[in-house]
Amino acid sequence: MTSIGQSTDRFSSAPWRDPEDDTLRLECGVFGVFGARDAAAIAALGLHALQHRGQEACGIAAFDGARFHTERHMGHVGDAFTGADLVQRLPGNMAIGHTRYSTAGGSFIRNVQPMFADLETGGLALAHNGNLTNFLTLRERLVQEGAIFQSTSDSEVILHLIARSRKAKIVDRFIDAIGQIEGGYALVAITNKKMIGVRDPLGIRPLVLGDLDGKPVLASETCALDMIGARFVRDVEHGEMVVISDTGVKSLRPFAAPAARPCVFEYVYFARPDSVVNGRSVYEVRKRMGRRLAIETGVEADVVVPVPDSGVPAAIGYAAESGLPFDLGIIRNHYVGRTFIQPTQGVRELGVRMKHSPNRAVLEGKRVILIDDSIVRGTTSLKIVRMVREAGAKEVHLRSASPPIKWPDFYGIDMPEREQLLAATKSLEEMAKFLEVDSLGFLSVEGLYEALDCAPRDPVAPQFTDHYFTGDYPTRLTDREIAEGRNDQAEKQLSLLVSA
Question: Which UniProt keywords apply (predicted)?
Fold first, then answer.
């Protein structure tokens, strides 16, 4: 779910973000439950499990049989949706929820989801994970036709398309709207009588169907089902719409869908390790990535150390394959939030130590293999390498459990433009020198596909969305193509309203 402001560098210009923090962010998680008592409380628990998919804002919408009730907050789920009065504030037996991380210019309440609209057919609340690659094109057309936008989010475009459809039934309106959007998305919505889930035609963004004591549940990941004690039923298929009502779960295939191409970065970084994504255990995939990384980039060393937390499963696999000991040479502080990010350069230099502390007993005098999930711009990696050396490491060998990231993303990952990606601008030797390491190694694309336990990558029809490594985008980038055709380098100003 994207939100556009004034800066062309979405990645570094979020209003609160440390410009030297190059951690990737996935922009949203969605959850929905139908026909369950105290549905909002269940949704809040589901959002707790999806907090890793968006930490900036959260929201819940519930329907009590007569009216919709919504709450949207900046901040974490645990701070926003607590208290014994939650189900009084948000009554009803069906609810949807959303966790959000915004891109530049979008950190304000009017962009927080779920979004709501009054239609002639009744109310509609919508939560959206992903990005529309023709968002600006659609928005421009809708504005010309008289639409009034209250946010700068592409999610609102979907609401307008549904509202302006001339179809009689809400499901047909959804189909009408979906036929006009492009990109990667997972949608969860509730109407007066139904809950609807939709996954994009390539299955780029994940969505699963669960069962809570006979009550249907939709969620971005299976870890949310585990949190509420629900049973995993199946993945929502690529290009599928599930319509849930009192009569059960109905599956629709409104469009011809090509072969699925789910996002491979769900396995590399975004999904929680205890989730199962598209039938694969994320934890086991990451361990296999580490094993393959050891085979491809092995080096003599004394200890394998993960960059916590996302590097841990790959480091376990690397250590097992290489026969080297695995140890916690870096300890992560889980209680540091954005409040601690200060504007002064001197304090920024200490920022990495607020999040990661060296374990000198493990590092001192050792040849250390550092395992991270990925390397983006390299700024955070450089700080960690320096910290490990200052703790007494004799050698530092950095290994990435993903291939080199060379291309930006437009499907829901907050990622820099190409000229800011380290691997897109430097050779392996130049990167190693920049990162001040004794050696540097990346998992190959072939090794990644092997770790995913599938056939070798098909260059004509890749099995996964992997453009960040290959430059092979799975869909048209309509807005970008139009902007390039106009030679328009400045990002559109979508709203004149600045929220405090």
Answer: Glutamine amidotransferase, Glycosyltransferase, Magnesium, Metal-binding, Purine biosynthesis, Transferase
